[in-house]
Amino acid sequence: MPSKIYLHLLPAITAVAIAGCVSRPATQAVTIVPQTPAPVAAPAPVPEPAPDPVAILIATSDRHFEAGQHELALGHLERAKTEFDRSLDTLLKSTDGARGNARLREHFERLVDRISVLEQAALRTGDGFSETRSEPAAIDALLAIETIESTTPKLATAETVQADLEATAHDIPIPTNDRVLRYVELFQGRLREFLAEGLSRGAQYLPMIQATFRAEGLPLDLAYIPLIESAFKPTALSRAKARGVWQFMRGTALENGLTADWYVDERADPVKATQAAARYLKTLHGMFEEWHLAMASYNGGHGRVKRAMTRSRKNDFWSLTATTRYLPRETREYVPMILAAIIIAKNPDQYGFDIVPMTAPATETVVVPPALDLRRVAEWASVPMDDIQTLNPEFRRWTTPIKAGEYTIKVPLGTGDKVREGLAAAGPSQLNAMQTHTVKRGETLTTIARKLRVSRADLAEANYLKVTSRVTAGTRLIIPRMPSAALLARATAGELENTAEAIATDLLKDTTAVDQAPAARRTYQVRRGDTLSAIARKTGTTIAQLTDWNKLTTTTLKIGTRLLIQSPRSANQ
User: Fold this and answer.
1) Which of the residues 71, 229, 266, 333 is marked catalytic?
2) pTM of the prediction?
């Protein structure tokens, strides 16, 4: 009989046996499917802000104003005025006008003030008839340098120069004395930069100078005289009022065929001045028959050199200048200085100079009428006024002379046709840069100059008169000023430093263009050069009032138009 334990375990054993007899099923791979997140709703698009029409108008106005500033900096007065007018017109032509919106009104008034500031800046920088800029002549600074005469030049310098002179051809005699050698060392030392710059600039003029001297039978070495006189700067002006590349005094220039008047100074024309220098040097050599004395005369004057020779009984430059008794220091130093410059200039590499030659700008010529504002030429050629002045340094003012006849000017290559087209399209009033005054009975140059606030000397010279000349009633005089901005017609040298308020106050005194009416209204006739801002100042009104009273839709004014001017009483009724 089975035991109790066996009986107790039997169900468990039976279950295990049955489980062992049944095969296990194959394990199946479980695929995990990722859960897709629920879609998130896209944010609603933010609507773009509606364009601000006022901001657009202001931005457009500012672009025209900035364009006007740029043109003004180039000397393009008509283009500048056009852009300034457009900047104001943009606001005036808005739907409600410049006064219909507080922001537009504020911007308009600020714009008028900014244009007025530019007008007054034009006053301070000259009115177009102010003389063109000059720069100090090199000769003044060079002759002021003290050389140490007791110092003996280095032996190496003497040997280098001697070897150079033996290898390089020269057509004037060049001694190797201490006076010449000291300047060779000076140019290699503290004056190195000056000489290098002068040689670089001179490269554009030397071919022309040498061709002129060759045609006149002059030594080509003399072509380097301007290196010392002016560093080859056409606008150089010395303390003694010598001018140009060749540093002619006015009297000597006139004697040698150059024109030098209020409008034109041909001493500043490199070509014409070189032709005059060739004539003058030939004359001096004919007097002394020796080039060193002729060169000394070019500096000190032939009369002074002749008197020194008479007193000293010497006819050789080096013996004449061995003492300080007969010629001033400047003339004694002038010749050895030029000879040293010639030595280096003909063989700069030998003396450690690396010269980068400047090239002359490519130009063409245009024939223009008298009394032409050269700033119009700059506008037509689309170049800065400075470029026209640089190409034509003989013009002292921004206008061609008033004398009848045509004038040939240089313009950048490729711009000649544009200038000729501009000349053909412009009316006479657009070409004439002058203001005139008809002499009344009892007037003199002095009273006219005082009345019009110009220099009596300028008034006389601009009209080819002497300061003491008498003028008869009915004579039309050229007034030496041009309307480059609205305020210029009333400016004087003494007022240039005045405040805007003081200038405006002075302008209010001018009532010559205002026709007084018996009622509280009057009219103003627009003259050449007038702008709304200028008329407002002259008549004691505002641009906004002028625009409102005359129903203006533009700031462009036609000459001869009569504008209504209301008194404060009638304006408020």
Assistant:
1) 229
2) 0.71
